[in-house]
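Q: Convert this sequence to structure tokens.
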Amino acid sequence: MASRLGVSPARILLLFREVELSPSATLSSLKIGVADIIDCVVLSSTPEPSKESESGEELRLRVQGQEKHQVLEVTVPRGAPLKTLMSHYAEAMGLKGHKLSFFFDGEKLSGQGTPAELGMEQEDLIEVRG
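A:
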């Protein structure tokens, strides 16, 4: 897909039923049929690699909008600022440019905080309002 669109593979985001696909996912493991649709989003910038992501210290988080269909599962390094996750969600949901607020355990998040600083764990939920 990246070569067809002329972009770096790191800028491609594939979504199936609004869940981010793993690069190792296969059609049979996803149980995709002929009528299913895989969405492709080209991100505006390549995420910056961090030491945590290289050492495998990553978290899989769920980001949920006000509507049930506005959920996105993302994998982020524990030490990466949340601003990357926030812009990733806005772009994937077609909400870039909208004023969005992100909350974890009832506390409003700033883009500067990291999952490690906030004590986030695997499969934690970040709520989005706006």
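The first strand starts at residue 12 and ends at 16.
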